[in-house]
Design goal:
The chain contains 10 helices and 7 strands. The protein has a single domain, classed as Vaccinia Virus protein VP39 (Rossmann fold), CATH 3.40.50.150. The chain is of the alpha/beta class and about 250 residues long. The structure holds S-adenosylmethionine (SAM).
Length: about 250
């Protein structure tokens, strides 16, 4: 299974991954939850953006008090080209001493990592006592898809695969409040934000999912035809893709 944003530089098109990220980051509903992340970082004098991607959030927090970190060279270069400081490193081994930051956030990163417990442990380690951690991710359990003319059973099978194999940690965010409390963090808060899309071409590759997961889903030629014709016909006829992003915050 290949996960584009787990290892951007190994994909066939890292520049395309950077471009897609920048495009999604401009969507008003994505900007809405990012505003909440920024609000939560407002009081922190030294901030780390883990998995900073193309660096827009580093600049939004302020280049004078925020640095980014990403395991992808393509992402670090895109961030640097904008004037953001971004270091190339892996969240599982953060290259910082204990207690270095007053604020730390990870937007759509934990869903991609190999070992979420280790990644969270590292994030907490580099946060100073009293510092704030913010993690934002969608929960794929909340995914709603409607495509007129595609049978509900086929939709349900595809949604299950999106949740369970489309991401490494497709529904981990809902367990974050409990995980952060177990790590000893306090003042845990959860803010949900919806994302709704009405153009299937915006929906993260949805037109090609059954073909991509043909073996895992046991899809027949008939299923593929039904899906692809259904998606094509749904463009003007009520296509809907919707899910909830959660912004989870806690204090060390
Ligand atoms: C979906 S993108 C989000 C980027 C950025 N946070 C944003 O909101 O635009 C996920 C980012 O996490 C990075 N990433 C994935 N696994 C990582 C890891 N183990 N350590 C550091 N960065 C990682 C990817 O390279 C990618 O840039």
């Amino acid at each position: 299974m290949s996960y584009t944003y787990s290892d951007v530089d190994s994909t066939s098109d890292p520049a395309g991954a950077v471009e897609w990220q920048e495009r999604v980051d401009r969507w008003p509903q994505v900007r809405a939850y990012k505003r909440r992340v920024l609000e939560l970082m407002a009081q922190a004098e030294r901030v780390l953006d883990v998995g900073c991607g193309p660096g827009g959030d580093v600049l939004a927090v302020g280049a004078d008090r925020c640095v980014g970190l990403d395991r992808s060279l393509a992402m670090c270069r895109a961030a640097a080209a904008k004037g953001a400081t971004a270091c190339r490193a892996d969240v599982h081994r953060l290259p910082f001493p204990d207690g270095r930051f007053a604020g730390l956030f990870a937007d759509r990163v934990v869903q991609h990592v190999e070992d979420p417990d280790r990644a969270l442990g590292e994030m907490v380690r580099v946060l100073r006592p009293g510092g704030r951690l913010v993690v934002a991710d969608p929960d794929q359990e909340t995914l709603v898809i409607h495509i007129p003319d595609v049978d509900q059973n086929l939709l349900d099978r595809v949604k299950t695969l999106r949740r369970d194999i489309g991401y490494r940690n497709g529904r981990l965010i809902s367990s974050l409040p409990a995980r952060l409390a177990a790590l000893g963090l306090a003042d845990v808060s959860v803010d949900p934000f919806p994302l709704s899309l009405t153009d299937p071409d915006d929906a993260f590759g949805l037109p090609g999912w059954p073909r991509l997961w043909r073996n895992q889903g046991g899809f027949s030629d008939g299923d593929l035809l039904e899906w692809e014709r259904g998606v094509e016909g749904s463009r003007e006829r009520g296509f809907l893709y919707s899910l909830i992003y959660f912004v989870v915050s806690a204090v060390r």
